[in-house]
Structures are given as C-alpha cells and as structure tokens.
Design goal:
single chain; alpha/beta; TIM Barrel; 8-stranded parallel beta barrel; 12 helices; about 45% helix; EC 4.3.3.7; lysine biosynthesis
Length: about 290
C-alpha cells in the first residue's frame, strides 16, 4: 500500500450558513490539498462530522470527492460505526469507484471487549472489496484496541493493511512496530506525535491540521521519511500550538475556524451537538495565526 505512505488528510465537511453541505468549498479544499502536496485524502473520516450526515449526504460527499479528485491522488473512504451488522451492509454495498482503501474506526460507546473488536473487524474484512485501515482512537471511542488485537487482525486478514493509531501510547506504538507483519503499516492518527512516531517506524500521518496547512504537514512527513528530523522539528514546533488549539473545544470546530480565517472554506459552520468555537478561543487562535 504505497498509496498510504506520507501525509494524508481527514477532510472536513464544509457547511453553508444554513447547515447544508457546501460543495463549492469542498471542491476548493480538495484542489488546495492536492496543489499543496498532500499525498492522499480521506473522505468522511470522523473529522468530516460523519455522525451528523444522513446516509444520502454521505453518498453525495463520497461521489463528489471521487469525481473532483479524478485520480490525481489516492483516496480513502471513512466508513465505521458501532453497529457491526449495519456497517457490514454499508461496506458490502459501497461504490468504491475512485477509492483505494477503507478507514474504519473502532466501535465507539459500546465499549466492546478485545474479542468483540476483533469480531467487528473480521466481519468488515470478510465483505470489504478494498484494503482496510484500522482506526484506534480511545479518547473518542471509550475503548482501546490493544496491540495484540491489532496484530491478530493484521496476521489473520491480509487486506487489513494498516492501523491509524491515536492512542497516545508510545508503549503501544512500539509493541505494534515490534510484532506486526513486515508489510503492515503504522500510521499516526495524532498530529503532535507524528515526528516521534515516524522515528519509531510509522509511515506517515492522517492529519487534522493538514486541512489548513497541507504543505507543511506533507513536508514534515517527507522530511521524517528521509530521516531529516532536525528540519522536521522546525515544522513540528511551528504547528504545535495551533494543533493544540484545534482540540480545545472539540474537533473539527477549531480547524474549521482556522480554515475560515485563511479563506479556505466559506464558514466555520458545524452541526449540532457541535457548535463553533467560542469568542475567547477565536481570539487566541487569531493571535497564534498572526505569528
């Protein structure tokens, strides 16, 4: 899966002021990412506010994104949830035209056992027509996919090809790197730890802040891949505070505000239960952007 090397971005879903999907801004965002050197795009990962889109809206976004990208860069579809049978149906019937892989988040809220997580992904792998990327983000799902479960899935299913790891545990990252099959990929799911994860052997990042700064994120990943950590640290340090601010009042509220301020999207509209960032956080972000 050379397509998953380097920097990918979990695209936001831009909205108009009335809450409808702003396809014009989405098109500009896609072109901006490609023009600035992003290696691949993820359509409707959790940063895309997938949970508050209707089934029809999700189909429209996937189709529009595939058409707009038009093969210029690899494209990954985000498709996950906590109702295994429903996700299996969606995966089995999904039109993967233009897509190279599927990113599926570990089941949230249910708090399954490790065996439950394994069986969930097994059911997806048995019907998926494309390679599958696991996504472990315990801070949002309420449960951690252990390294042992990740390795078991990687060994049992050849087309489970990678994991997007956002556990924040370097012990966990190291265990995956030590025990994984040679061709199984570890991908950072958390911008601030991309540099040290790539030093351990991760192949890149699926980024949030890359929505606003694709050139910088792509360059950071490229420098790390080349072993040039001194220059990579400069970019890492320059993005660190803004990345932190993106998550103060939940993702993607912060990064959408940054993108609006930079003229990348028209509004920072999000869908309830999310709300735009507060005036005080806007002021803090504006001060950081001015630097």
């Amino acid at each position: 899966m050379n397509e998953l090397q380097g920097a990918g971005v979990a695209l936001v879903t831009p909205f108009n002021a009335d809450g409808s999907i702003d396809f014009e801004s989405l098109g500009r965002l896609i072109d901006f990412q490609i023009d600035e050197g992003m290696n691949y795009l993820v359509s409707l990962g959790t940063t895309g506010e997938t949970a508050t889109l209707t089934a029809e809206e999700r189909k429209q976004v996937w189709a529009y994104t595939s058409e707009r990208v038009n093969g210029r860069v690899p494209l990954v579809a985000g498709l996950g949830g906590n109702n295994t049978s429903e996700i299996v149906k969606q995966v089995a019937s999904f039109d993967f035209s233009g897509y190279c892989a599927l990113l599926s988040v570990s089941p949230y809220y249910n708090k399954p056992t490790q065996e439950g997580i394994y069986q969930h992904y097994k059911a997806i792998a048995e019907v998926a027509k494309l390679p599958v990327i696991l996504y472990n983000v315990p801070g949002r799902t309420g449960s951690n996919m252990s390294p042992a479960t990740t390795i078991r899935l990687a060994q049992d299913f050849k087309h489970i090809v990678a994991t997007k790891e956002a556990s924040g545990s370097f012990a966990q990252f190291s265990e995956i790197m030590r025990d994984k099959p040679a061709d199984f990929l570890l991908i950072s799911g958390d911008d601030p730890v991309t540099l040290p994860m790539m030093a351990l052997g991760a192949v890149g990042i699926i980024s949030v802040i890359g929505n606003a700064f694709p050139k910088e994120v792509a360059t950071l990943a490229s420098l790390c891949a080349a072993g040039n950590y001194a220059e990579a640290r400069e970019i890492h340090n320059s993005l660190l505070k803004l990345t932190e601010l993106c998550f103060v009042e939940s993702n993607p509220c912060g990064v959408k505000y940054i993108m609006k301020q930079l003229g990348i999207i028209a509004t920072d509209q999000v869908r309830l239960p999310l709300v735009p960032v507060s005036a005080s956080l806007q002021a803090t972000i504006d001060q950081e952007l001015a630097k």
